[in-house]
Task: structure prediction
Amino acid sequence: MAAPRKDDVRSLIIESAEDLLTQKPFSEISLSQLAAHAGISKGTLYYHFKNKNEILFAITDKYLDAQWHELCEWTENADKDTSLHRLVRYVLERDVSGVKLRLPLFYDAMIGNEEIRTHLIKRYKSFAGLIAEKISERTNKVSGEYFAWLLLLLSDGLSIHQTIGNDSLDTDHFMKQTARYIKDYL
Result:
Protein backbone atom coordinates (compact mmCIF):
# COMPACT_ATOMS: atom_id res chain seq x y z
CA MET A 1 0.00 0.00 0.00
CA ALA A 2 1.35 3.40 -0.96
CA ALA A 3 1.88 6.06 1.68
CA PRO A 4 -0.72 8.84 1.64
CA ARG A 5 0.23 12.06 -0.15
CA LYS A 6 1.11 15.06 1.97
CA ASP A 7 -2.21 16.84 1.19
CA ASP A 8 -4.15 13.70 2.14
CA VAL A 9 -2.43 13.51 5.55
CA ARG A 10 -3.12 17.17 6.24
CA SER A 11 -6.80 16.66 5.34
CA LEU A 12 -6.89 13.52 7.49
CA ILE A 13 -5.57 15.47 10.47
CA ILE A 14 -8.13 18.24 9.96
CA GLU A 15 -11.00 15.75 9.60
CA SER A 16 -9.86 13.87 12.71
CA ALA A 17 -9.69 17.12 14.69
CA GLU A 18 -13.20 18.06 13.50
CA ASP A 19 -14.45 14.66 14.61
CA LEU A 20 -12.85 15.00 18.05
CA LEU A 21 -14.32 18.49 18.38
CA THR A 22 -17.79 16.94 18.32
CA GLN A 23 -16.82 15.05 21.48
CA LYS A 24 -14.98 17.64 23.59
CA PRO A 25 -13.50 21.16 23.59
CA PHE A 26 -10.32 21.67 21.59
CA SER A 27 -8.42 22.65 24.73
CA GLU A 28 -9.04 19.12 26.07
CA ILE A 29 -7.73 17.35 22.96
CA SER A 30 -4.06 16.44 23.11
CA LEU A 31 -1.87 16.13 20.06
CA SER A 32 -1.28 12.49 21.02
CA GLN A 33 -5.04 11.84 21.00
CA LEU A 34 -5.36 13.59 17.67
CA ALA A 35 -2.50 11.61 16.11
CA ALA A 36 -3.98 8.35 17.39
CA HIS A 37 -7.44 9.27 16.11
CA ALA A 38 -5.97 10.07 12.68
CA GLY A 39 -3.92 6.85 12.69
CA ILE A 40 -0.62 8.66 12.27
CA SER A 41 2.45 9.24 14.41
CA LYS A 42 2.84 12.36 16.49
CA GLY A 43 5.91 13.21 14.38
CA THR A 44 3.79 13.13 11.22
CA LEU A 45 1.29 15.44 12.88
CA TYR A 46 4.09 17.88 13.79
CA TYR A 47 5.39 17.72 10.23
CA HIS A 48 2.10 19.20 9.01
CA PHE A 49 1.19 21.44 11.97
CA LYS A 50 3.55 23.11 14.45
CA ASN A 51 0.94 23.32 17.22
CA LYS A 52 -2.73 22.91 18.10
CA ASN A 53 -3.60 26.48 17.15
CA GLU A 54 -2.47 25.84 13.56
CA ILE A 55 -4.86 22.88 13.41
CA LEU A 56 -7.72 24.97 14.75
CA PHE A 57 -6.89 27.72 12.24
CA ALA A 58 -6.94 25.18 9.42
CA ILE A 59 -10.38 23.97 10.52
CA THR A 60 -11.65 27.52 10.87
CA ASP A 61 -10.25 28.63 7.55
CA LYS A 62 -11.68 25.57 5.79
CA TYR A 63 -15.13 26.32 7.20
CA LEU A 64 -15.02 30.09 6.66
CA ASP A 65 -13.52 29.84 3.17
CA ALA A 66 -16.35 27.50 2.17
CA GLN A 67 -18.90 29.86 3.71
CA TRP A 68 -17.32 32.82 1.87
CA HIS A 69 -17.34 30.97 -1.45
CA GLU A 70 -20.95 29.81 -1.00
CA LEU A 71 -22.13 33.35 -0.18
CA CYS A 72 -20.40 34.79 -3.24
CA GLU A 73 -21.75 32.02 -5.45
CA TRP A 74 -25.28 32.44 -4.07
CA THR A 75 -25.35 36.25 -4.42
CA GLU A 76 -23.97 36.11 -7.97
CA ASN A 77 -26.52 33.55 -9.19
CA ALA A 78 -28.80 35.46 -11.57
CA ASP A 79 -31.41 32.69 -11.35
CA LYS A 80 -32.02 33.29 -7.63
CA ASP A 81 -33.84 35.98 -5.72
CA THR A 82 -30.94 37.44 -3.73
CA SER A 83 -32.77 40.51 -2.50
CA LEU A 84 -31.93 41.92 0.93
CA HIS A 85 -34.47 39.91 2.94
CA ARG A 86 -33.33 36.68 1.24
CA LEU A 87 -29.68 37.62 1.85
CA VAL A 88 -30.41 38.14 5.55
CA ARG A 89 -32.13 34.78 5.83
CA TYR A 90 -29.31 33.08 3.90
CA VAL A 91 -26.59 34.51 6.17
CA LEU A 92 -28.47 33.70 9.38
CA GLU A 93 -29.36 30.16 8.36
CA ARG A 94 -25.81 29.30 7.33
CA ASP A 95 -24.19 30.91 10.36
CA VAL A 96 -26.53 29.19 12.79
CA SER A 97 -26.15 25.81 11.09
CA GLY A 98 -22.35 26.05 11.21
CA VAL A 99 -22.00 27.04 14.84
CA LYS A 100 -20.37 23.80 15.99
CA LEU A 101 -17.12 24.78 14.32
CA ARG A 102 -17.18 28.29 15.79
CA LEU A 103 -17.88 27.28 19.39
CA PRO A 104 -14.38 25.85 20.02
CA LEU A 105 -12.91 29.10 18.73
CA PHE A 106 -15.10 31.19 21.00
CA TYR A 107 -14.23 28.99 23.96
CA ASP A 108 -10.48 29.09 23.42
CA ALA A 109 -10.56 32.85 22.71
CA MET A 110 -12.54 33.47 25.90
CA ILE A 111 -10.19 31.43 28.11
CA GLY A 112 -7.25 33.52 26.98
CA ASN A 113 -5.80 32.06 23.79
CA GLU A 114 -4.69 35.35 22.26
CA GLU A 115 -3.56 33.82 18.97
CA ILE A 116 -7.00 32.29 18.38
CA ARG A 117 -8.79 35.46 19.53
CA THR A 118 -6.79 37.54 17.05
CA HIS A 119 -7.40 35.07 14.21
CA LEU A 120 -11.12 34.93 14.97
CA ILE A 121 -11.47 38.72 15.00
CA LYS A 122 -9.55 38.97 11.71
CA ARG A 123 -11.87 36.45 10.05
CA TYR A 124 -15.01 38.10 11.47
CA LYS A 125 -13.87 41.47 10.17
CA SER A 126 -13.24 40.00 6.73
CA PHE A 127 -16.61 38.23 6.60
CA ALA A 128 -18.42 41.34 7.87
CA GLY A 129 -16.80 43.28 5.02
CA LEU A 130 -18.09 40.81 2.44
CA ILE A 131 -21.60 40.85 3.91
CA ALA A 132 -21.55 44.66 4.07
CA GLU A 133 -20.60 44.77 0.39
CA LYS A 134 -23.47 42.42 -0.52
CA ILE A 135 -25.94 44.46 1.56
CA SER A 136 -24.79 47.73 -0.01
CA GLU A 137 -25.35 46.24 -3.47
CA ARG A 138 -28.99 45.66 -2.50
CA THR A 139 -29.97 48.79 -0.57
CA ASN A 140 -28.82 52.23 0.46
CA LYS A 141 -31.43 52.53 3.22
CA VAL A 142 -29.07 51.13 5.87
CA SER A 143 -25.34 51.17 6.46
CA GLY A 144 -23.96 47.94 5.01
CA GLU A 145 -21.24 47.80 7.66
CA TYR A 146 -23.66 48.31 10.55
CA PHE A 147 -26.17 45.82 9.16
CA ALA A 148 -23.46 43.20 8.51
CA TRP A 149 -22.29 43.35 12.13
CA LEU A 150 -25.90 43.27 13.31
CA LEU A 151 -26.43 40.06 11.30
CA LEU A 152 -23.26 38.45 12.65
CA LEU A 153 -24.16 39.33 16.23
CA LEU A 154 -27.70 38.08 15.71
CA SER A 155 -26.49 34.80 14.23
CA ASP A 156 -24.07 34.26 17.13
CA GLY A 157 -26.84 34.91 19.64
CA LEU A 158 -29.24 32.57 17.85
CA SER A 159 -26.50 29.95 17.64
CA ILE A 160 -25.88 30.09 21.37
CA HIS A 161 -29.58 29.75 22.19
CA GLN A 162 -29.93 26.85 19.76
CA THR A 163 -26.84 25.16 21.24
CA ILE A 164 -28.07 25.44 24.82
CA GLY A 165 -31.49 24.17 23.77
CA ASN A 166 -33.56 27.21 24.67
CA ASP A 167 -37.08 25.96 23.92
CA SER A 168 -38.46 29.47 24.43
CA LEU A 169 -36.86 30.58 21.17
CA ASP A 170 -37.68 28.92 17.87
CA THR A 171 -34.57 29.96 15.90
CA ASP A 172 -36.00 28.90 12.53
CA HIS A 173 -39.16 30.94 13.07
CA PHE A 174 -37.10 33.88 14.34
CA MET A 175 -34.93 33.88 11.19
CA LYS A 176 -37.99 33.73 8.92
CA GLN A 177 -39.67 36.50 10.88
CA THR A 178 -36.54 38.67 10.69
CA ALA A 179 -36.40 38.23 6.90
CA ARG A 180 -40.08 39.09 6.64
CA TYR A 181 -39.62 42.31 8.67
CA ILE A 182 -36.73 43.34 6.46
CA LYS A 183 -38.77 42.66 3.34
CA ASP A 184 -41.68 44.72 4.69
CA TYR A 185 -39.74 47.66 6.14
CA LEU A 186 -36.53 47.96 4.11
In short: The mean pLDDT is 90. The first helix runs from residue 6 to 21. The radius of gyration is 19 Å.
